[in-house]
């Protein structure tokens, strides 16, 4: 093969194997941290390449997706065969293929291995989990197996590092040696059936002959494994253990990550203060502080949750529990057109949809994965909670429902969480029967043997998840943050702001004069505040926001939000909360001349509650925030896709801009409809 | 329909086909055939559920579905819907 001088000592090696056979462990042992992670062109199949030097040759190790067969049924399998045959754009045809074969499950693993050998590439077989096979009394004559397969077969054990050096030597030796003799399984195809079925049956028959006399298995049950499996997949005990594991996982991403997130926020606040102090007051400081740094802060704050969830998921995957969890939960999700593998991504979405959507990477089936990603943002995440709590506390009457301990606000809160689940199930059901309809997807899932997770592999997955989020999603989130900053800050006209503040003062004076107003105290306080520098600044900020592109957009969309019972200010706050739902409270604070309030703290929350209660429709004495309006806002925020970061992550994980658009559109339509129904019904019933 | 087809139907009525879904937990049976030639049945064959192989039904998930199987020295989970395609008999 003619090659340029620079490429002469460069080798491309593909790593091929079934899922759950220790392929990731072998990759890490051979190449360490991958140098490149991305997607193959045109498909959302992950491309992972590691690089190392051996015997003076630079080796590019391509980690192919785990597959069971080379007959292309799924996009993953198509990618594998395209790379092996040198048909994948941007990937040179491999000089050698390392075929990973699980020593504890050799017959089934040889199905893929013999298919790969028939392609005629120089090959090395890595017999992984050899130590586990030894313990189970499985004896494999590797020399004879190598002779029959026509390629070196090397025992590998991750715990001791056995075989890693030999695999490296094997790569360079086989690529340098003469082309391998053509390999073909000696198998007669039985009659009847389809050609594909005949080929599969014949291949297994051939493998059985190939293994004849090579493999000795000690008869007898695998007592420990059987006992573990019997408990963990038991109807009662298995379900209890599952509930405990899920609770631990959920607690850790919901609460354990919180101190870390606060630490990150505090760090970002310090950076913001440091930078803010060193820049002159003006548009540049506003851009850096409120645009760029706010975007950076809004990105890094997700990292603790992502890292925590991936730590859990990789541990569960590494020990073999992830498949058992999917096995236990499958029946519950099958009705909604999903599978058991969707459970953990959906559960984590109650903490935050971003790690949840990223955890959907563990779903091999692309249709199920996409469906899970599309409905994950409907789970009520922790960012919705402050909105629910403030509005429930302020506008839902605290009275008992039936029994004394069941309070109405708690019931509304539970209802909002249930709403997300029910709507997600309905959407998944509908999508799987319409646009995702296709041939029936086989649910055929291996339950791998129990084993200890490899710490390096676990840490690598955590690092990779956090890094891919920061590097790919982070930059886009910061860019979006800057765009929104511009929309909320411009245009700015000082004369108009003065006029607006004067109008606010006049309005307040006339309302304070009207004795009947029940919120007179709050109004008088607001009026008095206008004479303090801080109060005046808050009023001017409110005026500036009302005049910005955002404020104009709020007025522009008022006809759309009117049927929801909202005035243009709520519409404004809803638009401004596009970067993140929780922003809606802060925006309401600014728009109601309160300046920056922290609705997460008691003080800020009560100040905002009082101000919202005192709000009136422009030029009337009709309160804006009534029970139906509060409910309509909460339902809207339960169902809407007001989270730019989630949409960016959906784009990144699906590899297409269509899916974030679809998600945003369907969720906004549902949110509007839900809010409309709640408001109209609530008003008609006189709530 | 040919006369042999009719004969087969009679035989089938007399000897009901047992699928993997009808097997009780803990029992080991031998695979006789996998129905159909669509991707689902090909995937079942590729996973090693080929005629002549012994399969043990290890258990069922809490809601009765899916099933946990042991074959060729490893554990596999398939849904009842897929299990009904796997025709089994005694060893």
Structure explained in plain terms:
The complex is a heterodimer of chains A (687) and B (91). With 687 residues, chain A is an alpha/beta fold. Chain A has 3 domains: 5-217, P-loop containing nucleotide triphosphate hydrolases (Rossmann fold, 3-Layer(aba) Sandwich); 237-463, no CATH class; 469-684, no CATH class. In chain A, 60% of the residues lie in helices and 9% in strands. In chain A, the strands form 3 sheets. In chain A, strands 2-3-4-1-5-6-8 form a 7-stranded mixed beta sheet, with helices on both faces. In chain A, α9 (237-278) runs antiparallel to α10 (283-300), α11 packs antiparallel against α18 (455-489) and α17 (408-433) packs parallel to α27 (627-639). Chain A starts with 9 loop residues before the first strand and ends with a helix. The relative contact order of chain A is 0.07. Residues 1-6 of chain A have low confidence and may be disordered. Chain B has 91 residues and is α+β, with helices and mostly antiparallel strands. Chain B has a single domain (17-89), classed as Ferrous iron transport protein A (FeoA) (SH3 type barrels, Roll). Chain B has helices at residues 3-14, 39-46, 80-83; strands at 18-19, 28-34, 54-60, 67-71, 74-78, 86-89. In chain B, a hairpin with a 2-residue loop joins β4 and β5. Chain B is globular. β12 (444-447) of chain A pairs antiparallel with β5 (74-78) of chain B.
């Amino acid at each position: 093969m003619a090659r340029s001088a620079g490429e002469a000592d460069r080798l491309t090696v593909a790593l091929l194997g079934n899922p759950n056979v220790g392929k990731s462990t072998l990759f890490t042992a051979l190449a360490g941290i991958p140098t490149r992670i991305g997607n193959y062109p045109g498909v959302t199949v992950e491309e992972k390449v590691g690089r190392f030097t051996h015997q003076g040759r630079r080796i590019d190790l391509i980690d192919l997706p785990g597959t069971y067969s080379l007959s292309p049924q799924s996009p993953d399998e198509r990618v594998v065969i395209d790379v092996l045959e040198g048909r994948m754009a941007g990937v040179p045809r491999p000089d050698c293929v390392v075929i990973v074969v699980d020593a504890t499950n050799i017959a089934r693993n040889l199905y893929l291995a013999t298919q790969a050998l028939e392609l005629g590439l120089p090959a090395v077989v890595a017999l992984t989990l050899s130590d586990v096979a030894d313990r189970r009394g499985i004896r494999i004559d590797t020399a004879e197996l190598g002779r029959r397969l026509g390629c070196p077969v090397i025992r590998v054990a991750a715990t001791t590092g056995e075989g890693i050096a030999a695999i490296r030597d094997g790569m360079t030796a086989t690529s340098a040696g003469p082309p391998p003799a053509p390999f073909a399984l000696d198998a007669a195809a039985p009659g009847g059936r389809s050609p594909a079925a005949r080929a599969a049956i014949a291949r297994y028959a051939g493998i059985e002959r190939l293994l004849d006399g090579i493999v000795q298995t000690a008869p007898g049950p695998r007592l420990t494994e059987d006992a573990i499996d019997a408990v963990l997949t038991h109807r009662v005990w298995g379900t209890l253990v599952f509930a405990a594991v899920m609770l631990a996982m959920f607690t850790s991403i919901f609460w354990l990550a919180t101190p870390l997130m606060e630490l990150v926020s505090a760090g970002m606040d310090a950076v913001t203060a440091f930078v803010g102090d060193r820049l002159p007051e003006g548009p540049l400081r506003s851009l850096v502080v409120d645009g760029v740094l706010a975007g950076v802060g809004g990105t890094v704050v997700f990292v603790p949750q992502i890292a925590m969830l991936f730590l859990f998921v990789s541990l569960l995957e590494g020990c073999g529990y992830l498949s058992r969890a999917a096995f236990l939960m499958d029946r519950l999700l099958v009705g909604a057109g999903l599978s058991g593998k969707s459970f953990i991504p959906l559960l984590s979405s109650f903490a935050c949809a971003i790690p949840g959507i990223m955890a959907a990477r563990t779903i091999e089936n692309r249709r199920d994965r996409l469906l899970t990603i599309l409905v994950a943002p409907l789970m009520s995440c922790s960012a919705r909670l402050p909105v629910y709590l403030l509005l429930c506390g302020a506008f839902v009457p605290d009275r008992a429902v039936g029994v004394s301990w069941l309070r109405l606000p708690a019931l509304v809160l539970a209802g909002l969480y249930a709403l997300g689940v029910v709507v997600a199930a309905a959407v998944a059901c509908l999508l799987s029967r319409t646009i995702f309809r296709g041939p029936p997807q086989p649910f055929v899932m291996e339950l791998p043997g129990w084993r200890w997770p490899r710490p390096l592999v676990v840490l690598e997955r955590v690092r990779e998840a956090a890094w891919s989020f920061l590097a790919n999603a982070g930059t886009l989130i910061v860019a979006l943050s800057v765009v929104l900053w511009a929309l909320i800050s411009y245009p700015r006209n000082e004369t108009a702001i003065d006029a607006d503040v004067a109008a606010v003062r006049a309005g307040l004076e006339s309302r304070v004069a009207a004795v009947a107003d029940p919120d007179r105290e709050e109004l008088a306080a607001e009026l008095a505040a206008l004479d303090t520098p801080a109060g005046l600044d808050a009023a001017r900020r409110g005026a500036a926001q009302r005049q910005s592109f955002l404020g104009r957009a709020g007025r522009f969309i008022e006809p759309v939000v009117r049927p929801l019972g909202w005035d243009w200010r709520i519409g404004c706050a809803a638009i401004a909360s596009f970067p993140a739902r929780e922003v809606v409270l802060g925006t309401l604070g600014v728009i109601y001349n309160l300046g920056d309030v922290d609705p997460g703290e008691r003080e800020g929350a009560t100040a905002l509650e009082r101000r919202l209660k005192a709000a009136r429709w422009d030029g009337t004495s009709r309160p804006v925030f009534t029970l139906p309006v509060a409910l309509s806002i909460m339902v809207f925020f339960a169902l809407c896709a007001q989270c730019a970061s989630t949409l960016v992550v959906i784009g990144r994980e699906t590899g297409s801009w269509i899916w974030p658009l679809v998600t945003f559109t369907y969720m906004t339509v549902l949110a509007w409809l839900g809010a409309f129904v709640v408001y109209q019904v609530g008003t008609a019933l006189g709530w | 329909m040919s006369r042999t087809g009719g004969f087969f139907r009679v035989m089938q009525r007399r000897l009901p086909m047992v699928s993997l879904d009808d097997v009780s937990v803990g029992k080991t049976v031998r695979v006789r055939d996998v129905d159909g030639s669509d991707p689902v049945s090909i995937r079942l064959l590729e996973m090693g559920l080929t005629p002549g192989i012994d399969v043990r039904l290890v258990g069922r998930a809490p809601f009765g579905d899916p099933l946990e199987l042991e074959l060729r020295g490893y554990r596999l989970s398939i849904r009842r819907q897929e299990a009904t395609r796997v025709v089994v008999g005694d060893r």
